[in-house]
């Protein structure tokens, strides 16, 4: 069928009601958001953002309501979609934006693609990777992996991806989303090493929409975290990483077929791991317990 592209959509969307099909690749994926409120009758008040791209640039795509439980887990980073009968709306101004792996890619920020169960009922098709043709001009997924030796030089709130061997994972803890709120964030602390520094990555991992991964992080697994944010604790200048709205977490059993397996820094880490003694690394691992962070000073005077 006749296809359009994101660049053409941005120029013509106000003058059209129906749009030609789109062929795009998912580059980023947000956590699933529940926006139900007491007294409002909605069957499935869910929403998820994706950043999708074709040869012309990148745009936000929103998956709404009952389409979320049907499609959210099938739409992975790297998945190619054929979309028909979608809607176009002005962008929501307050949503978060991931940092693209390709800084040269054009971002169409004024509009977003809306996938709804009706008005109009969107038609979604997933194209298997082996059927994707080079002439479609779809961009590859790119990452911003850093090593532990590079972390201390990065500015506060910098976005990056990391891979490491888990040496510590703490128990799941809760924090109130707002003071006096009944809603909680669930998170846990983890340490991971990559052989480039004596210090580990300190990771604050909030439960994303991947409960099967979050609950099974354990020592000696290869952990990949994408779209992490650099946080600097003053005055100690302790640096740690925290998840963002677009973070994805992967452990052993989930790595196969992920786009990051082609990344040079991921390959370097695997080579380093193959040179290590598993028995020696196991002796250094810890699991569970209370992890006070940032650490308190060692004397009351300093405190």
TrEMBL record:
<protein>
    <submittedName>
        <fullName>RADX protein</fullName>
    </submittedName>
</protein>
<dbReference type="GO" id="GO:0003697">
    <property type="term" value="F:single-stranded DNA binding"/>
</dbReference>
<dbReference type="Pfam" id="PF17659">
    <property type="entry name" value="RADX"/>
</dbReference>
<dbReference type="InterPro" id="IPR040893">
    <property type="entry name" value="RADX"/>
</dbReference>
<dbReference type="InterPro" id="IPR012340">
    <property type="entry name" value="NA-bd_OB-fold"/>
</dbReference>
